[in-house]
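WARN retry 2 of 3 for item q-0093 after timeout on previous attempt; input resubmitted unchanged.
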Amino acid sequence: MIVRNGQPFNIDAPWTDENGIQYPSNWYRLASDEERSEKGFSWVDDPPPFDERYYYDANTPKPLDQVRQIIKSNLAAIRWGYETQGIIYNGNVYATDSQSRINYLGAVQTVTDTVNWKAKDADGNTVFVSLTKTDLQTIISKGIAYISACFDKEKTLTETIDTTDNLEALIAIDLNTGWPDRNA
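OK item q-0093 returned
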């Protein structure tokens, strides 16, 4: 950042020096390095960026308990994303959101032979599939195991967050890797 006498300076703005001499908006761009230096201009590095989620400003971190809550909220959102992305069974993706779980349970109790269902194929296209009671039971079982594994991962990370007492180590906890495989 360009400064003049220690203060940030907009190089495309007209300015007046301490003797009342006015300079046009293009002066800085046309001046030599020597002229700029004589008028008190210099370059200083921009202040380092800081993450506003964890710091009030570049030098003031938020309290650890507040940072923990922020990170746990992010973690819950990440877990929800994994939990509801669906499981893969016989090459198709079956939803694992709350409503779909209820639908599977209702269907498995009423189906006698097969039931038509919607899923997504490997390319993300909606397809109709014919599911047997055994298919539905397998989807339910695998879905519950997958969702439970997502909560297990969140619990493990939450315990790490709760026991980490160093801000930089807390911020460095990787919330995005090691989630369960959704292939059923």
